[in-house]
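Team,

Forwarding the record for the chain on the shared tracking sheet. I've put the sequence and predicted structure together so nobody has to dig through attachments.
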Amino acid sequence: MERLFEIIHEDAELLVINKPAGLVCHPTKGDVYSSLISRVRLHVGEVIRPQMINRLDRETSGVMLIAKQDGAARELRRFWETRNVHKEYLAIVHGHVHDDEGLIDAPLGRDENSGVAIKDCVRPDGAPSQTEFRVQRRFRHPEDAFTLLRVMPRTGRKHQIRIHLADIGHPIVGDKLYSGDENLYLDFAMGRQTEEQRRRLILQNQALHARSVRFIWHNQEWTFQAEAEDWFVEFADDFRGG
């Protein structure tokens, strides 16, 4: 039997998992293993109606919360909506980020110049969006330079981290939509990705990992953390620093 997912925490109200990269949150086909929520239903059984509190893009790995009771779902979603949750991600980006830390303050909205319906962009009339980052380490591949970042989004817009990092000239390694060539995304989505495109992307999935969440609930602080997958860790650790 295929492993459903890595469980970080579970009690009567809450299930916390480490979502693997490459797994969609909602079903796209009949296979019960093909989406996160389908796997969760297999785990909790037919009596419980699980509800996702946060969502991650298909290629993003990391901490996800699933409420097992309606009351818990309402309370936890309110925390997310009112930004009373501290979220931290790890991202590997192209190039050496010059500043050791910084705040990207750039509004986001629909990219009307794109043929991809889900794509957003930085635009003056967009929704206020802020992303804080700190450099963990700078390293090099024989041909390229990269930076491992800790990323703390202050707002929760769609694709926010990916867009903000690309906007400052440091797109996430493996990001098919925001690396400057939409064909990387379109050809992948249509099942016609070429070997040359795979080489350009370097990694099969985008190097973005939801590392931790922290919030106050039931009068106590809750912190949930998830380790990045092996391919992410190996890519960040295997190359020369500097």
